[in-house]
TrEMBL record, chain A:
It comes from Aurantiacibacter luteus. Residues 6-120 form the Acyl-CoA dehydrogenase/oxidase N-terminal domain. Its cofactor is FAD. Pfam families: Acyl-CoA_dh_1, Acyl-CoA_dh_M, Acyl-CoA_dh_N. Belongs to the acyl-CoA dehydrogenase family. Residues 125-219 form the Acyl-CoA oxidase/dehydrogenase middle domain. This is Acyl-CoA dehydrogenase.
UniProtKB/TrEMBL annotation, chain B:
The lineage of its organism: Bacteria, Pseudomonadati, Pseudomonadota, Alphaproteobacteria, Sphingomonadales. Gene3D superfamilies: Acyl-CoA dehydrogenase/oxidase, N-terminal domain, Butyryl-CoA Dehydrogenase, subunit A, domain 2, Butyryl-CoA Dehydrogenase, subunit A, domain 3. InterPro entries: Acyl-CoA_Oxase/DH_mid-dom_sf, AcylCo_DH-like_C, AcylCo_DH/oxidase_C, AcylCoA_DH/ox_N, AcylCoA_DH/ox_N_sf, AcylCoA_DH/oxidase_NM_dom_sf. This is Acyl-CoA dehydrogenase. PANTHER family: ACYL-COA DEHYDROGENASE (PTHR43884), ACYL-COA DEHYDROGENASE FADE28 (PTHR43884:SF20). Residues 7-102 form the Acyl-CoA dehydrogenase/oxidase N-terminal domain. GO terms for molecular function: acyl-CoA dehydrogenase activity; flavin adenine dinucleotide binding. Keywords: FAD, Flavoprotein, Oxidoreductase. It holds the Pfam family Acyl-CoA_dh_N. Residues 222-335 form the Acyl-CoA dehydrogenase/oxidase C-terminal domain.
Length: 398, 358
């Protein structure tokens, strides 16, 4: 066994690092590191820089603009970018819709939509969840009824991340009520500017607006916006679960956050003592670093298997659970590091350019909001309970 | 043994519960936490007029209670409704005013005419990363204070501030010379602020020393422990209610054993936290006080964050919304862990006391 990158992988890592050093705007990496709110323009800026380099869509086939990287290269890229505090690439168009179009769409759909995803013309959002259909997604009710060359869509989606910025939404809709609930679902692309769509923001517990409710009232959708076959949408949605998810554990993001936490522990005093000198705090920090290092190797093992042709669904579930737990624990420790300064809540300070007097440690203002916001990691993307069900059945065969 | 809180205290708690549910209901809370003071002064005054604050102090100080279980009865209701307002600050500053025989000032506080807060812990200086505290200098017959205090509850709304400096405590008028206050909202509603003093005239709280300051802090932990358990009870009950009504896969999610066992663990832990709250109140006047304070605050923070995290997780997406009261309870719960020393600080303190052979 050998855990080292090969010489080629090492060279690739250097190339990625050099690119990030040259092209990642400091303004953006500072905002990410400080936990400030990213605007739509910020996210688009980084998206465009990657697109110009040709590195925006590593998961796509080369003929549509992919990079032709190995799974290990993708992992290296994702990890390095996160460690450099690059903004997260919004996954909806690039990593969720595109793979479905590439596998199940028509060539016409691919030619139309894929370039627009790359150049940023279309911002996509994901319309799966409904008020009554969360973990039990297949029970979704939003209906699409075919009338001539249109579907007429009625119903409601919810938790739609960044739907307020979106030009398009890909939806799972019900086209048949007669058989098994999984068998009456279709995959439909809907223009957010269509008459009959209403987006209502949902305020989250940290005061932020990142999710929405989307209401559909007699929305007309051309039949050519159907992806694949009618009533086969569930298969397409599930395809994403088996699709390579090299970044599901968020190793890079956790490594970056842990580095920041260690820096804080080495420089922040409480009761006259540096946090790193506090045996209880140091113990929490050490446990986290050990867990993260272990997970990184688990992740590489899964990637290696995937690179050799496996489709590791249940292993992805392990990575999703442990990855989100670790990320949440880092957030938890940041909040603890802030001590009593975890309490002030100065919303304006989350925005760029805020120049009010800082309160307490420079980094402490966003810790509680981030801690609470990160609760979402174990809820979305298949809750950690649902992931444990998958492990129970698929690996443990209980 | 007797584990009941007593009839009079129960009546007081019931009165406060009715008042809070009528006069400080959820809609009002949502509005008031968007404001700078973070509580409604008029509601505070009406609450005081009911005599509630008198329960926090003994008869000799113009109150009618003052024992740990009186404090417990009041703060259990504060937790139940996660009311905002300078409850803790009033308790702790008031205890020192009482110890010093400052009956005029304390009388005005108990009546709700004046708001008092308690400035004890140093401020963290953002530029240097150092902690800055207040020092006192004698100036003729009087004293002046210079320095800073951090995260002072309801500082912006306070008329009076009890400021500690070393082993002494002082009373400062909020509008006195050299007082600078930078206020902000708090994560769990309410408000706080950074206090800077420069040559500010202050009156020494005579006879108050390190013991009294420690006793006030200990009583603060009693209050937080009881408030915290009430918040936990709410988190548990609201989550159980949701588990009975939310259906996925055709059944209430409460039917999933994976969730049932998690709630069983949580229920067990909450009972442990309740016992810690009882311990600290019952042993308040004993030699075991210091240890049970550390134990209670450690337990509160540990079980509290578990309760908050489990409650949100088991609610799923809806548990993360501002609209659902649950998320506000979760925020209060976690923030209580940061008040008067956190989980690790109290565990360290416990270890120290254990080493000393207690
Ligand atoms: C911040 C955020 C962003 C999101 N973004 C999007 C988006 O862009 N697009 C989109 O379509 N959706 C999005 N979601 C929705 C997300 O996918 C759902 O919240 C998730 O599927 C859980 O559904 P639910 O919230 O309805 O919880 P429920 O399914 O009601 O679950 C409640 C609890 O029950 C547990 N549970 C459910 N079933 C079982 C079981 N069988 N065994 C054991 N436990 C179980 C769950 O794990 C959870 O703890 C987002 C959610 C959040 C919080």
């Amino acid at each position: 066994m050998n855990l080292d990158y090969t010489a080629e992988e090492e060279a690739f890592r250097e190339e990625v690092r050099a690119f990030l050093r040259d092209k990642l705007p400091k303004r953006l990496s500072d905002k990410v590191r400080q936990g400030k709110n990213l605007t739509k323009a910020d996210m688009e800026e980084w998206h465009a820089i990657l697109n110009e380099k040709g590195w925006l869509a590593p998961h796509w086939p080369e003929k549509y603009g992919g990079t032709g990287w190995s799974v290990m290269q993708k992992f290296i890229f994702e990890t390095e970018a996160a460690e450099a505090h690059a903004p997260r690439i919004i996954p909806f168009g690039l990593s969720m819709l595109a793979p479905v179009l590439i596998k199940y769409g028509t060539e016409e759909q691919r030619q139309h939509y894929l370039p627009r995803i790359l150049d940023g013309t279309d911002w996509w959002c994901q319309g799966y969840s409904e008020p009554g259909a969360g973990s039990d997604l297949a029970s979704l009710k939003t209906s699409a009824v075919r009338e001539g060359d249109h579907y007429v869509v009625n119903g409601q989606k919810t938790w739609t991340t960044l739907g307020q910025h979106a030009d398009w939404i890909f939806c799972l809709v019900r086209t048949d009520n007669t058989g098994k609930k999984q068998e009456g679902i279709s995959f439909l692309l809907i223009d957010m500017k269509s008459p009959g769509i209403e987006v209502r923001p949902i305020k989250l517990l940290d005061g932020d607006y990142e999710v929405n409710e989307v209401f559909f009232t007699d929305v007309k959708v051309p039949v050519e916006n159907l992806v694949g076959e009618e009533n086969k949408g569930w298969t397409y949605a599930k395809y994403l679960l088996t699709y390579e998810r090299t970044n599901i554990a968020g190793v890079g993001a956790s490594m970056a956050a842990l580095d920041e936490l260690k820096r804080i522990a080495r420089t922040t005093k409480r009761n006259g003592k540096l946090l790193i000198e506090d045996p209880l705090f140091a113990q929490r920090l050490a446990r986290l670093e050990i867990d993260l290092e272990n997970m990184k190797t688990t992740n590489l093992r899964v990637l290696d298997a995937a690179g050799k042709g496996g489709a590791p669904v249940a292993e992805s579930s392990m990575l999703k659970i442990r990855g989100t737990e670790i990320r949440q624990q880092i957030g938890d420790l940041m909040r603890r590091a802030a001590g009593r300064y975890a309490q002030p809540f100065v919303e304006e300070s989350f925005e760029e350019g805020y120049n009010g007097a800082p309160i307490g440690p420079q980094w402490s203002g966003t810790t509680s909001s981030e801690y609470f916001n990160m609760r979402k990691l174990s809820i979305f993307g298949g809750s950690n309970e649902v992931q444990r069900e998958i492990i129970t059945k698929a690996i443990l065969e209980l | 043994m007797d584990f009941s809180i007593g009839e009079d205290r129960q009546m007081l708690a019931d009165t406060l519960r009715r008042f809070l549910s009528n006069e400080a209901d959820w809609e009002k809370r949502l509005k008031v936490i968007e404001t700078e003071p973070g509580f409604d002064r008029e509601t505070w005054r009406s609450m005081a007029e009911l005599g509630v604050l008198g329960a926090l102090f003994g008869e000799e100080a113009g109150g009618f209670g003052g024992t740990a279980f009186d404090v417990a009865a009041v703060f259990g209701e504060v937790g139940r409704s996660i009311a905002t307002g300078p409850w803790l600050a009033t308790l702790m500053a008031g205890r020192l005013l009482a110890a010093a025989g400052e009956s005029d000032a304390l009388g005005a506080v108990i009546a709700g005419d004046k708001v008092v807060t308690w400035a004890h812990l140093p401020a963290h200086d953002s530029d240097s990363g150092e902690e800055h505290d207040v020092t006192a200098s004698q100036d003729g017959d009087g004293w002046t204070l210079t320095g800073a205090k951090g995260v002072v509850d309801y500082l912006g709304a306070a008329d009076l501030v009890v400021v500690t400096a070393g082993e002494r405590a002082f009373l400062v008028e909020a509008d006195a010379a050299g007082v600078a206050r930078a206020g902000y909202k708090m994560v769990d509603g309410g408000s706080g602020g950074e206090l800077r003093l420069s040559n500010t005239p202050a009156r020494e709280l005579s006879g108050v020393g390190a013991e009294d300051i420690a006793a006030a802090e200990a009583m603060g932990v009693v209050a937080l422990a009881w408030e915290g358990v009430a918040v936990m009870d709410q988190l548990r009950d609201q989550t159980l209610e949701y588990m009975r009504t939310r259906k996925q896969f055709g059944v209430p999610i409460g039917k999933f054993q994976a969730l049932q066992h998690r709630m069983a663990t949580l229920a067990l832990e909450i009972e442990q936290a309740r016992s810690a709250a009882i311990n600290v109140a019952a042993r308040f006047d004993s030699a075991e006080r210091a240890k049970s304070v550390a134990a209670a605050k450690y337990t509160l923070a540990r079980v509290g964050s578990l309760a908050a995290e489990e409650a949100i997780q088991i609610h799923g997406g809806i548990g993360m919304t501002w609209e659902l009261p649950l998320s506000h309870y979760a925020k209060r719960m976690v923030m209580l862990g940061h008040v008067l020393g956190d989980e690790d600080e109290h565990l360290a303190r416990y270890i120290e006391l254990m080493r000393e052979g207690d």
